[in-house]
Every structure is written in C-alpha cells, then in structure tokens.
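Researcher: Structure prediction, please.
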Amino acid sequence: MRTAKIVGEFINMRIAEVEDADFTLLARQNKEKNKYIPQLQITIEQQKEWIRKQIESDDCYFFVIERKDGEKIGTFSLYDIQNNKAESGRLVMLGNQIESMEAGILFNSFCFEEAKMDLVQSEIDAENNAALGFSNQLGGKPVGSVIDEKTGRNMIIYHATKAEFQKVLPRLQKIFDHFAKKELKGR
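Model: Predicted structure follows.
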C-alpha cells in the first residue's frame, strides 16, 4: 500500500522513514506552531518504533513534507483506512503559505486519486481558525462536533469527499498558480 514520492512544484511528500523520527517528534513538540494538537511526551526511540509501525501498517500513510532542497517542513497522515474511508491528521506545517497550499492539494489528490478514498474525516480544534479555514478551502465540510477525551477540547468534525475537492480544485489551482508565479519571480 506504499506510494512513491509525490512531487510538487515547491514541495515533495514522501512516506516517513525511521530516520525522520527526530524531525517528526520535534515538529510535533513545537508549541508555537502546534498549540492545538496534543504534545507528545515520548522519547526518540518511541517515535522510531511508532514510525516503524506506520511503515508496516496497511491502514496508514504517514508523510514527511520537504522543500525541493530536502529541508523537512511538515507532516501529514491518512490513517484508520477502512472500506475507502479514513481519517486525516497529524498535520504539522512549518513552511510558508504556498508550501502549505501545495501540501493540501497534493495530499487531497493522493487521498482521492491514488488511495481511492470516498470519505476522509478529520477532527479540528474549534479554536484553530487556520486549520478550519484550510479544511474549508480544500472542500471539507463541517458535519458535527465532539469533545476530545484526552484534552477536553471541542473538536469540529470535517468530511472531505472527492466530489467536493474536485469542485474547489480549479479555484485552488488558479490561486496556487498566481502565487507560484510571484514566488518564482522572487527567486
């Protein structure tokens, strides 16, 4: 169920490797960037073991997002895959706005085209306006809420479908292309 590297214009996404444990753990523990997700209180060895399990799993894709020069700038995951339905999460983005947008487009394209998902669900902290906006922008629809048992925080449940993503993709691509041209001119 593994996939090759997903190549974009500014970023690439690839399945995490055990050697990514330092980055993935430190990125997740970045309190400034990740105040809406639970902080992990584990060792590097525990993180390596967790990544090994993700690699061997048939119901998970845990991606590392990299700039073209190989600098790691984020993570994204599709997990708990069952009957063409799955959850998305473990999103950590340390890159800029255009890199984040491209990561969202590439990730959703992967979910619906390559992994053949019909429905991708995510739970987003109700106070995380950036993530809520990101999900809306990618065609996700809020369908309910739940209180997170571990944190006690209100989480908004989002559903994303191929049909909704296909509706917003032309607009997203137009926005992305506009900013990509500016980015390329600035280099």
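Model: The beta strands are 6-7, 11-15, 60-67, 72-82, 85-93, 119-125, 141-147, 154-161.
Researcher: Thanks, that helps.
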